Amino acid sequence: MTAADLRMPVPARRRLLARPTATTGFSSWLTTVDHKKIGILYIGTAIVFLLTGGIEALLIRIQLAGPNGTFLTADAYNQLFTMHGTTMVFLVGMPLAAGFGNYLVPLMIGARDVAFPRLNMFGFWAFLGGGLFLYSSFVLGGAPDGGWFGYAPLTSTPLARGFLPGRGPDFWAIGLILLGIGSITAALNFIVTILNLRAPGMTLMRMPVFVWMTLVIAFLTVFALPIVTAALIQVFMDRQFATNFYNSAAGGDPLLYQHLFWLFGHPEVYILILPGMGIVSELLPVHARKPLFGYSIVVFSGIAIGFLGWGVWAHHMFASGLGPVATSAFGLTTMLIAIPTGVKIFNWLGTIWGGSIRLNTAMLCALGFIGQFTLGGLSGVTHAIVPADTQQTDTYYIVAHFHYVLFGGLVFAIFGGSTTGGRRRSVGCSTSGSARSSSGRWQWASISPSSRCTSSACRGSRAVRTPTTRAWVGTS
After folding, report:
1. What's the pTM?
2. What are phi and psi of 22, to 5 degrees?
3. What pLDDT shows up at residue 453?
4. What is the CATH T-level fold of the domain 25-252, as seen in this structure?
């Protein structure tokens, strides 16, 4: 062996679990641990499921277009009804919020990436696997047909004498468990990233509102999803092994399932809507050209919604015979949670008032969010009236309320944020106080509550872009 041979570098063996290095091509999307690409994957996948859920809704409306419709069989209608609700809640709303959070939160707090990039990647693939597993039921024995809420004992009765024959409820239970695993990993990532990886000088009360709302829903997700996971495991055990968790004849309690599901279900509503509130809180100051009115109040209102959301679940159950004490208590908490929600609406209106408003697409979506969400909120607070809520249960009043809040609310905010980001243009204030536009950033991501812009040209834009590509970071 010559001296030259000794000087030649020995190629390192690639480890089995080495960090993926592909940056271009199809394989880079399959193996990426980059938060921006994972965010795009979440959003793109959610849009596909949004179109799927929309088609299911169209088929449902065709069936209901006239009396005694025969477009769908009863079983097909139940399957589409169940899968539409499940898709929109678990496969559209939650991944859209996760996608925007993944893409924007590290940029907005000045972090290089999320705290656990590989766990982030695992969360996306768990979500996608759960969604595909759910939809595979259409070709593997029948889709779930017990409603998106899957009330026991309808869904939990053993297969040998099941009220819902077939494997649909099994696919539903296992699919939602997989989706829950993906959501919890994403939530843990957001919590650690936001609390530990903020840029120097970015205190908690300097964070953008969207980051705050992401932090709140991350905590809600971590504590809410294990509850419904326990309920789903019990449903699966009842069906497969006759464990009788929800069999009243054997000493089980069917009402327990409703408590477990809605103890998850109502925080889930805020998991879906708080990201929209955060997006709108970032859009309005940019397009009204003035600071967000009452930044700290908006933040603490979001935190209050997160806490109070745990105390209102039983207003979904007023028709189940809980008794006057329980219904009165939950009616009161339903009134209380309307307070921080209403405070946010007045903060948004105060931001618009007196501003130099640009009625572009993003601003119109933000205003549409306020209008639609207000209608949803007004119809929701009536659930605090126990006799009225008892009569409204299982009526189109509830359907309308739910869609005003989630579709009219969340989706309008997502459209507004996507439209702004799609133009790839940011408006900020330079250190010299002059207004400028630059490419390569999301416009509404440039708002930070920490700085004080004094330029009349900026008209309230409160962000300073750092010379590097780290993020938009506020200055004092």
Report:
1. 0.84
2. -65, 130
3. 37
4. Cytochrome C Oxidase; Chain A (1.20.210)
CA distance 279 to 285: 11
Which pair of tokens denotes residue 423?
């133009």
**Tens-place pLDDT, residues 163-193:** 666 788 899 999 999 999 999 999 999 999 9
Burial (0-12, 13-18, 19+ Cβ within 10 Å), 73: exposed
Where are the domains positioned within the chain?
A: 25-252, 423-476
> Which pair of structure tokens corresponds to residue 52?
């799927």
Cβ burial of 21 (10 Å; 0-12, 13-18, 19+) is: exposed
